[in-house]
């Protein structure tokens, strides 16, 4: 539930075959970055396919508070930017609602400016540790004021001149990488980020498209070294944002587990740093055809034809986690219908998302009759291919903890279980997937 919004429970019931072709809403990561770079660049940026979700609206409002103009005209979002180095001091705290990525990236973007910016958020966001972003910013000379030990509300004040750092990421996090690079835009000289484990690279691709001098090189031990020259000129661009693979995951898993289903998901980002779920599901026996691969918005995209499949449990390679970090809740649902055991490990980061996703998934699976074991950074799921006995006949609801991916995962599950699956709130699905209920209903899903 977003701040001030009344919780609305939802129930998914065993459904007939899902069928049809659907367009998935725009990629959330790319939408945040397009608004930020558009708002910063000189001149006009036109964005087609922007995700019209609450998380993205919060980023749009923040960019407006920092001096950019953002409006929608004939279905296209138009952003008039201020020019690199020319953001304005906001008059009020920036409220990011539920959006960790919007908050973290804009901390980098504006935190290095020589004025004060305060960041606030909803009940979920104030629980998230922001020190991972604040630590490199401190090294760049940013003064951090936070009463809650690195949690929101946080006020940042940059130095006269920011210090360009060379920062080795202590964890696999695209948010932290991106915050440092965006901060580097306003520091003289070269800012370097070293990534031992590659994460989604939309920031790098989009910075290059806007004209930044950014290079990526492989280090001696295979690490990615990203170098950005600060204080360069960024120029407005036309961007066409393709569909979000992390959103596609929910109808995709639903189609795999509901007998007889045959669904096509149109226009989905196929960036190799985002396709770990597809790879994993294919290894489990999923019938997913990647069709019509093409290029859009600086990314590979494709249509995905997904048919009901008899899945087998596997051990998911740990080093794949970064390429499917948001998809483990959906994968856990597929695992609940797979023959045998699915072992997921290397999941420590999952506890730091919009909710503690590891705990939330394990709780929801158990509540709905699925045998699973939660470790400190792992989850083992014992599947039940026909869904017999699964679901909650008494109507007990999964606690979603303001987390859209928990809500959508369990609603997908309930389409194939013997008994219904309920979630305590579905309002926050609007953070990332407006129209989820209508899209699923259009495929034949029964969700009330
Ligand atoms: C995101 C990065 C990921 C992901 C989040 C979006 C991004 O988090 O979980 O939903 O757009 O940069 P990490 O920072 O942990 O990689």
From TrEMBL:
Please cite one Gene Ontology biological process associated with this protein: aromatic amino acid family biosynthetic process
Main location as per UniProt:
cytoplasm
Protein name per the record: 3-phosphoshikimate 1-carboxyvinyltransferase
**Subunit text:** Monomer.
Which InterPro entries does UniProt cross-reference here? Enolpyruvate_Tfrase_dom, Enolpyruvate_Tfrase_sf, EPSP_synthase, RNA3'P_cycl/enolpyr_Trfase_a/b
- Spell out the family assignment given in the record's similarity comment: Belongs to the EPSP synthase family.
Task: Spell out the subcellular localization from the entry.
Answer: Cytoplasm
Superkingdom of source: Bacteria
NCBIfam families for the chain: aroA
Q: Cross-referenced SUPFAM superfamilies, in alphabetical order?
A: EPT/RTPC-like
Which organism does this sequence originate in?
Ensifer oleiphilus
Q: What class of enzyme is it?
A: transferase
Name the Pfam families for this protein. Answer: EPSP_synthase (PF00275)
- Write out the GO cellular component annotations: cytoplasm
UniProt keyword terms in alphabetical order? Amino-acid biosynthesis, Aromatic amino acid biosynthesis, Cytoplasm, Transferase
């Amino acid at each position: 539930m977003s701040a001030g919004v009344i919780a609305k429970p939802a129930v998914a019931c065993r459904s007939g075959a899902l069928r049809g072709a659907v367009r998935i809403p725009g990629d959330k990561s790319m939408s945040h970055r397009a608004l930020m770079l558009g708002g910063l660049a000189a001149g006009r940026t036109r964005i087609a396919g922007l995700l019209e979700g609450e998380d993205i609206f919060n980023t749009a409002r923040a960019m407006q508070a920092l001096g950019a103009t953002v409006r929608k005209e004939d279905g296209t979002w138009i952003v008039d930017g201020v020019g690199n180095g020319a953001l304005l001091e906001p008059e009020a705290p920036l409220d990011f609602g539920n959006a960790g990525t919007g908050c973290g990236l804009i901390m980098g973007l504006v935190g290095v400016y020589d004025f004060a910016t305060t960041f606030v958020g909803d009940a979920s966001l104030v629980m998230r540790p922001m020190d991972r972003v604040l630590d490199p910013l401190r090294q760049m000379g940013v003064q951090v004021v936070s009463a809650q030990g690195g949690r929101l509300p946080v006020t940042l004040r940059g130095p006269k001149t920011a210090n360009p750092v060379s920062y080795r990421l202590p964890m696999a996090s695209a948010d932290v990488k991106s915050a440092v690079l965006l901060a580097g835009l306003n520091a003289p000289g070269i800012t370097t980020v070293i990534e031992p484990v590659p994460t989604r690279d939309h920031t790098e691709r989009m910075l290059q498209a806007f004209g930044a001098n950014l290079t990526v090189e492989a280090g001696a031990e295979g690490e990615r070294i990203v170098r950005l020259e600060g204080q360069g000129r960024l120029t407005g661009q036309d961007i066409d944002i393709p569909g979000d693979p992390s959103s596609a995951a929910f109808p995709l898993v639903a189609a795999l587990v509901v007998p007889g289903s045959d669904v096509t998901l149109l226009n989905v980002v196929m960036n190799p740093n985002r396709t770990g779920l597809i790879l994993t599901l294919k290894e489990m026996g999923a019938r997913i055809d990647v069709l019509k691969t093409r290029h859009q918005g600086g990314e590979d995209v494709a249509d995905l034809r997904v048919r009901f499949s008899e899945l087998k449990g596997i051990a998911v390679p740990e080093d794949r986690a970064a390429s499917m970090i948001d998809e483990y809740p959906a994968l856990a649902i597929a695992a609940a219908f797979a023959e045998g055991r699915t072992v997921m490990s290397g999941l420590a980061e999952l506890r730091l998302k919009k909710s503690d996703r590891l705990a939330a998934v394990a709780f929801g699976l158990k509540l709905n009759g699925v045998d699973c074991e939660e470790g400190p950074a792992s989850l083992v799921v014992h599947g039940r291919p026909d869904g017999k006995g699964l679901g909650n006949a008494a109507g007990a609801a999964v606690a979603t903890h303001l987390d859209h991916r928990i809500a959508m995962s369990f609603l997908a599950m309930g389409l194939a279980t013997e008994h219904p699956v309920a979630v305590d709130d579905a309002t926050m699905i609007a953070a990332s997937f407006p129209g989820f209920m209508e899209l699923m209903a259009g495929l034949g899903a029964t969700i009330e």
